[in-house]
Amino acid sequence: MILALAILCAIIWIGLIFFHGKFWQAGPILRPAEAGRTHMDIAPHVTVVVPARDEADSIQPALSSLLAQDYVGRLSVILVNDRSTDNTGALARALPDPHNRLTVVDGADPSAGWSGKLWAVAQGVAEAERQCADGSGYMLFTDADILHAPAHVSTLVAKAQTDRLHMVSEMVELQCESLAERALVPAFVFFFALLYPFAKVNNPKDKTAGAAGGTILLRRDMLRQIGGIEALRGALIDDCTLASCVKQAGGHLYLGHSCLAKSVRPYPTAGDIWRMIARTAYVQLRFSPALLVLTVLAMIVVWLAPAALAFLAHGPAQWMGAATLVVSLCSFMPTLGRFRLSPLWALALPFIALFYTAATIGSAFNHHRGKGVVWKDRAYTEAIPNDGRALEQKSRRA
């Protein structure tokens, strides 16, 4: 049995390394120089929609970075103040806006069947339609805790135009300063790439669809084609749901890493990162106990069993487990390099995987205890994924 487990682990890792979109690679990066490949003198109109709920700490630097974009085309920024209980809206309105780019919209309470963030985004899109009824150009969806380099919008549009893409998404640089962040945040990116290998997402012939919600540039005609934001209305993992809708509609996607956008949201403790994972882990599993069991078993076989075999088994099983463990640790090193961390952090990967597994189980417990998904004082206790079409959920105030 032990030898059979060692063989299974080795086979799985052979498949992951050679037949799973090279998920372990650092991933593609858009650089500002790529903006020169397109004729920016005919740059289309870009409307940026920023939903914000209680983001007083970051709203001014985030919006300032968008208002300071060097994009040569028309650029509009719509901040939707999503019923904030702090002075997010007032801080946004106080910002200097020499190019008259900013509009601040005070959002209404979510309608039935909508998640709070998507309801705010929908109000931003409605304002964008009011400002530009012809429906041309792009929408850029981003968060209120992200700083954008001046060339970011130009670079995104250049990529979309040059490669004739319908949607360009980037995983922004995440905070990695505290001990908890250094230990756990790189693995978040690593496991995301395992679930949504960038090469597969970017391949029009592959059904894999994924996106990172911090930066999503989307053609407005494609947004209309998929039925608008209403097509996602109850989605709790809205970025990947949007990507799925676009790809199902025949759209071409790009997903990569950003060197021009950075999140300023801190996760100073392991508890903060636990809550980030637990918030949507069970949603990702479609609230299925069976999928939860399979996921836990998969995490054990892929990440924990090789280490156990390497240190506790004997003979061929031990050597096979050790070789598999070395391969798994090496697969993590490109991600550590992206975060400018020592390769020695890879030695902690089995323990990090155990942490993520426990947080996923915790997410399921939260759901079955009635806590559901909680974010910004809103709780979502039910959601029914339906492969990218409208999702239904009941929401309540926490």
TrEMBL record:
<feature type="transmembrane region" description="Helical">
    <location>
        <begin position="344"/>
        <end position="365"/>
    </location>
</feature>
<keyword id="KW-1133">Transmembrane helix</keyword>
<feature type="transmembrane region" description="Helical">
    <location>
        <begin position="183"/>
        <end position="199"/>
    </location>
</feature>
<keyword id="KW-0812">Transmembrane</keyword>
<dbReference type="Pfam" id="PF00535">
    <property type="entry name" value="Glycos_transf_2"/>
</dbReference>
<dbReference type="InterPro" id="IPR001173">
    <property type="entry name" value="Glyco_trans_2-like"/>
</dbReference>
<keyword id="KW-0472">Membrane</keyword>
<dbReference type="InterPro" id="IPR017832">
    <property type="entry name" value="Glyco_trans_2_hopen-assoc_HpnB"/>
</dbReference>
<feature type="transmembrane region" description="Helical">
    <location>
        <begin position="291"/>
        <end position="313"/>
    </location>
</feature>
<feature type="transmembrane region" description="Helical">
    <location>
        <begin position="319"/>
        <end position="337"/>
    </location>
</feature>
<dbReference type="InterPro" id="IPR029044">
    <property type="entry name" value="Nucleotide-diphossugar_trans"/>
</dbReference>
<protein>
    <submittedName>
        <fullName>Glycosyl transferase</fullName>
    </submittedName>
</protein>
<dbReference type="GO" id="GO:0016740">
    <property type="term" value="F:transferase activity"/>
</dbReference>
<feature type="domain" description="Glycosyltransferase 2-like">
    <location>
        <begin position="47"/>
        <end position="226"/>
    </location>
</feature>
<keyword id="KW-0808">Transferase</keyword>
